[in-house]
Amino acid sequence: MACSFDRDKNMNKQVYKILTISEWTDAEALGEIETALDRKDGFIHLSTAQQLAGTLAFYFDDFDSLILLQINTQDFNDEIIFEKAVPAGERTGEFPHLYSTLKVEKIINKWEIKRDAFSLPDEIILEAENNL
Fold first, then answer.
1. What integer is the mean pLDDT of 36-47?
2. C-alpha angle 59/60/64, rounded to 5°?
3. What Cα–Cα distance (Å) separates residue 47 from each residue in 29, 50, 54, 83?
4. What is the DSSP string of 54-123?
């Protein structure tokens, strides 16, 4: 869990949720966002801006088009907790986990993002995340 002195710094960040096109379609129909992985782990996985490249590279490599959602952490008070990565692996930073319902109406920005021709090596992505 994040140290208390880091909490204020973390809670002023924007956080992001990446969804597949079908997950977004489901979320729009239900009015809330929760993926199968989120249900399994018991919280909603989010990323900071610095973590997005790693999340895209390590978990969404098979997709050419995705939905990127921006969420304001201040809308969730104590419900977003910065914790070690789940599942544990090479990513050593603390990631925002939402222990609440994420309603579609809480999304402040939405983009459809497409795979580009260039990608960074995993080592560089990890270095960028670890030097926050």
1. 95
2. 170
3. 24, 8, 9, 11
4. HHHHHH-TT-SEEEEEEEEGGGSGGGEEEEE-SS-SS--SEEEEE-S-EEGGGEEEEEEEE--S----HH
Q: Which amino acid is at 52?
A: L
Domain covering 4-126 assigned CATH 3.40.50.150 in the classification: no
Residues paired with 15 in a beta bridge: 71
Reduced to 3 states (helix: H, G, I; strand: E, B; else coil), residue 44 is strand
Tell me the residue type at 10: N
Bridge partners for 33 per DSSP: 102
pLDDT band at 42 (very low <50, low <70, confident <90, very high): very high
Cβ contact 25:97 at 8 Å: no
- Is-contact 80 118, C-beta < 8 A? no
Question: Do residues 92 and 130 lie in contact, with contact meaning Cβ atoms separated by under 8 Å?
Answer: yes
Give the domain ranges of the chain: 4-126
Distance CA 56, CA 41 (A): 19
Q: What is the pTM (predicted TM-score) of this model?
A: 0.80
Instruction: Dig out the tokens for 119 from the structure.
Output: 């990608």
